[in-house]
Amino acid sequence: MKNGWKSVRPRKFLSWIAIILFVLAANNIINTERVYFKWDTLLRYDMGGYYSYLPAIHIYDDLEFDFMTKKGFDKFEFVARLPDSTQVNRYSIGPAVLLTPSFLIGDKLARQNPIYENDGISMPYKKAVLLSTILFVAIGFFFIRNILLHYFSDFVVMAVILSIGGGTNLLYYSSHDAVMSHSYSFFLFAALLWATFSWLEKGNRRALPFLGIVMGLIACVRLPNLVIGVIPLLWGIRSWEDISRRGKLLIEQKWWIFASLIMFVIGYFPQLMYYKTLTGHWFVNAYDGYKFWFDQPLFWRLMFSFRNGWLIYSPIMGFSLLGLYFIWKHYRFAFWSLTSFLILNIYILSSWWCWWYLGFGMRAMIESAALLSLPMAACYHYWLKNKILKWLFVPILGGFIYLNFFQTDQYLHGIIRYDGMNWPAYKLVFGQPHPVKPELMHQRDSLIDYNLNIYKAIHDKKYRWEMCK
């Protein structure tokens, strides 16, 4: 085994149970919350941008999305008008590419049943898309499981899957807001981690084409996520000598690297083809007018603000940060790749004009959990070695998972808002189950930072710093 990691051969049914529990929990939420019936956001805002490609291409042949107006939706929630008046979808086509098989299944079922319209948004389409989203996340967990079981016990791997699947907002974005890009990016991040492991740990150069197409799809789903390229680039690097050896390996496998680059282009090609078909150009800045403030990254707020801070609404991920210490001490070959990714990713995310990303928790960090499963597993592994602290393991993890379920329910009932939360408002409603007394909600409303001009943060850096805390 490369890099000195000792292989563990445990019984493997516990980690399977954890994946099954996630699937059952997400499916149960979909059914008990009647997401099928109230999912009117399918063609609204970000989700409308990601999803609308499917009916536009497969049903209406309308790449300018005029069918949206006929269906009663405002296409300009996600359509950008270029200087030449061409209208393009601001959001990436990647999620639609991944959802194409399930959409076509839903389309076939809708056409076979006369009680449903084959309009792209009736019940068969919703069910097919929701179930396939859960499947993508489950496959992502399978990739993670496949890697972690080489080095950690089945119990630890189970704990990691339950922590990420039940203790973070991944569960919410795999059920209620399933067509947001993050669950698909989580799947792709996990696939890239597996491809990197297969290539550099197992010495399987045939994994390189797969790695390439996964990278292309990652770009196709969300272009800034290409920062994940530091994972295969730095994986296994512990010294200057390792950098030299990596260079020799790339030269030795140059044709496989070339094949990987071709597969990357294939993975990203749907986005290029969309722009080329509609505008005549291969590359289009559909986010023109929106910007990153790279000279004002808000690291601390992205992680700890009550306005969707990552570790406020997914505090269980703090164990991944603690786990980086054990990665440094015992598995150093993975340290620089994971740490470099985390720093670069948080820098990019916290530089976006809307650093709080509107929604439940820090949704932009969801996909990172696939990579941070490694330090989380290392943290749990050494935690369980402590004869005293190990007895706190189950109650602490159970408490964090319960907190996530509870806060998700609060968010669904408007007790936690998608925007404007601060410490006084959060403290007031903390632990308050639905329904909350009206007078308490009025008091919360008086405390919330209702920022009625959030888009001013696009152009006004000072406003972004002073008002959007």
Strand order of the largest sheet: 1-2
Q: What percentage of the residues does DSSP assign to strands (E)?
A: under 5%
Q: Judging from the principal axes of the Cα atoms, what is the shape?
A: globular
Q: How many β-strands, per DSSP?
A: 2
List the uncertain runs.
Answer: 4-8
Rg computed from alpha carbons, rounded to a whole number of angstroms: 22 Å
Output the number of helix runs: 22
Question: How do the SSEs run, as a string of H and E?
Answer: HHHHHEEHHHHHHHHHHHHHHHHH
Number of domains: 1
- The helix fraction, in percent, is 55-70%
Structural class: mainly alpha
Largest β-sheet summary: 2 strands, antiparallel
Distance between the termini: 48 Å
Question: What is the average of the pLDDT values?
Answer: 90
Give a quick rundown of the structure:
The protein has about 475 residues and is an all-alpha fold. The protein is built from 22 helices and two strands. The protein has one domain (about 1-410).
What does it look like?
The chain has 469 residues and is mostly helical. It has one domain. The chain is built from 22 helices and two strands. The chain has helices at 13-32, 35-38, 45-51, 53-60, 67-70, 94-112, 123-148, 154-167, 182-200, 207-221, 230-234, 240-252, 254-279, 299-304, 310-313, 318-330, 335-351, 368-383, 393-412, 423-429, 438-447, 461-466, and strands at 79-81, 87-89. Strands 1-2 form a two-stranded antiparallel ribbon. β1 and β2 (87-89) form a beta hairpin. The chain is globular. The N and C termini lie far apart (48 Å). Mean pLDDT is 90; it is low at 4-8.
